[in-house]
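Meet today's protein:

…
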Amino acid sequence: MKLFTKTMGALHALYHWTLAWASHPYAALALFLLAFFESSVFPIPPDVLLIAMVVAVPLKWFRYATIAVVGSLLGGIAGYLIGYFLYGTVGVAIIDFYHAESLVKEIGNRYSAYAFLAVFSAAFTPIPYKVITLSAGFFKIQPLTFLFASLLGRGLRFFLVAGLLRIYGERMKIFIHRHFDTLAVLFVVLLIGGFLVLKFFIK
């Protein structure tokens, strides 16, 4: 119980820190960097900052969504290149950090038939996109297939999130404040569940 309370306290602090960043002059740069590094290295998705920024300034929803898509796509390309050229050094270190060695091997067996679907699913859902970008480069799937699937998945995801917040922003802000603990637990479950879903579908 104490651990749960401390965890919720830390998440509350992180949430308010994120809200503070949403109004910062460098918020757009922070969103771009978060989207970029999440696509190949960082575990926290850019949706967290995107949501806070759109709630804070709803009229800039299109701009913020575009920044998230561009940052994520460039980060995905970086992940692809790491997998293509540096998998034996940098790529392996990242995959080891997420304990995803067996996942990468199984993904390789499926890429020949389901490359587009694999990349699109990871780009649009909580499935860990970084694992897909690295393995896509390592198994040398067609760059255009990777780029189109990534652009479609990330574009639909970030513009859907930002667009809905633009329409229901104030109500969503109240909802988040009222149900923060539940949403925080759900967020953690989705992060972990993404890896479990990936494991399930590649068996």
Notes: DSSP finds nine helices and no strands in the chain. The two ends are 35 Å apart (CA to CA). Residues 143-178 form the longest helix (36 residues).
